[in-house]
Write a structure and sequence with these properties.
This protein is of the alpha/beta class and about 450 residues long. Helix content is about 30%, strand content about 20%. Strands 1, 2, 3, 4, 5, 16, 17 and 18 form an 8-stranded mixed sheet that branches.
Length: about 450
């Protein structure tokens, strides 16, 4: 009997059997036409709010203006001068990493992992994140389930499996585990699509092509050492220029791009020179390399809160992993100042993964970014600039009917109604339960505290 993949069975059981679960199709009944009246609009770019109304038809914004009138059958939401803004975009999450990789590999049933991932997707939407880029893990099926209305969650642009070299940041084997390619003994993480271990340009090309065949929107490659993998020091550079270029070419042949995990100057420069468009983390780059990123037009996803905070944030046990994170914290102190100085294109990114109690920290990224940037700069990172990065996936982008990260005619009706003015105090968004009063995604309302 053929075994169904993890995400297919787990998500079916999650949606069919979990008591009290609200499916996407059971969101608050939303008329085909909705008029938000008396709002102050942040369009995703502008430094000032615009007073007016917003008309939604179906899943798109039909009109934005001052004197819009409701037609027959249009539902009117009186907003009382509150701020209407685009749904938030987080460009670096790992919904399938519901625990650290070693715990998933050794201690977790795959069906339970799928159920936790679906629950975290629902919670992420209710924090106001209507779109996320899942940058490593088997979430293609989760995206399909959400898009099909089986359960609520954000739009997911999934990278599918990490592409890593032997001994790379995505090689999560225990010390004595056999090599999956050398022995043919695939681990749970290899078998279920968390990671592909590939060495040499030919293997890298094959791994990228396989990830794309299985539905990856963009490709995630490990270009240097990381915190959560035990056998790759932070200073290591992973993959050769030829291997990295092979990944980029394979992605470009499918009209999309490569994002890399990279910490050091050498890893970042090698990746960008090979054609990589999106750099994740980069806490150890020098000022010269930050200027280089700006000159090349690369996007930086700094995952600032994790990079700058203490190891206690992740609840890590004492030992090598916690020591690595402490080293990252010390190295990242100048990163954001240099990025701002040279005008690097920064994108809101949190690297949310791990235990369910850690995921709500996602919204606290606004607290960290607010210490370094103006409110409008932070809001752009989480809306329009993030949407620009996601658009680099071209025809692989699954959401092309409208614009993301904007409140304009023809944009997706992914909208938040906010108490207070985030252009004056962006940290309002960190307290999402109190300050995000209404959440709409795809023209459907998933939260409406105005009626209470």
């Amino acid at each position: 009997m053929r075994q169904l993949p993890l995400h297919a069975v787990a998500l079916f059981l999650l949606t069919a059997l979990a008591p009290g679960l609200v499916r996407a199709e059971d969101a608050e009944p939303t008329p085909s036409s909705v008029l938000f009246k008396n709002v102050r609009i942040f369009d995703g770019v502008s430094e000032r709010l615009t007073a007016g109304s917003v008309l939604v038809e179906g899943k798109l914004i039909k009109a934005v203006g001052e004197h819009l009138e409701a037609q027959d059958g249009t539902s009117i939401i009186e907003c009382g001068g509150r701020v209407l803004m685009p749904g938030l975009i987080d460009a670096h999450v790992h919904l399938a990493l519901v625990r650290r990789p070693g715990e998933i590999r050794n201690d977790y049933d795959w069906m339970y992992v799928g159920a936790l991932a679906g629950d975290q997707a629902r919670r992420m939407l209710l924090r106001g994140f209507t779109t996320v880029r899942d940058i490593g893990g088997p979430t293609v099926g989760l995206a399909r389930a959400i898009d099909g209305g089986l359960l609520p969650g954000p739009r997911i642009l999934s990278s599918g499996p990490f592409i890593t070299q032997t001994s790379g940041h995505g090689d999560f084997r225990n010390y004595n585990d056999p090599h999956p390619v050398m022995t043919g003994n695939l681990s749970f993480l290899d078998r279920e699509g968390w990671v592909y271990i590939a060495d040499g340009a030919d293997e890298v090309t094959r791994a990228v092509r396989e990830a794309l065949r299985r539905g990856a929107v963009q490709i995630k490659v490990m270009a240097g050492g990381g915190v959560s993998s035990p056998y790759d020091p932070l200073d290591t550079v992973q993959y050769t220029p030829e291997e990295m270029r092979a990944a980029v070419v394979a992605a470009e042949n499918w009209g999309t791009y490569v994002a890399v995990h990279a910490y050091t100057d050498r890893a970042v420069r090698m990746a960008v020179e090979a054609g990589v468009k999106s750099i994740e983390h980069a806490p150890f780059v020098t000022e010269a390399t930050m200027k280089f990123l700006a000159e090349r037009g690369a996007y930086l996803c700094p995952t600032a809160r994790i990079s700058l905070t203490s190891p206690n944030y992740l609840g890590l046990p004492p030992g090598a992993t916690a020591d690595k994170l402490a080293e990252v914290n010390a190295g990242a102190r100048n990163q954001l100042a240099w990025a701002k100085k040279y005008g690097v294109k920064l994108v809101f990114s949190t690297d949310q993964f791990g235990a369910p109690e850690i995921f709500p920290e996602q919204s606290k990224e606004f607290l960290t970014l607010a210490e370094h940037f103006s409110p409008v700069e932070v809001l752009r990172m989480a809306t329009s600039t993030a949407a620009e990065l996601l658009a680099l996936s071209g025809l692989r982008h699954p959401y092309r009917e409208g614009t993301l990260g904007a409140v304009t005619k023809g944009a997706y009706a992914d909208l938040l109604l906010v108490e207070g003015n985030p252009l004056e105090d962006v940290t309002l968004l960190a307290d999402y339960e109190e300050n995000i009063l209404l959440i709409m995604k795809d023209g459907k309302v998933y939260k409406n505290a105005l009626k209470d």
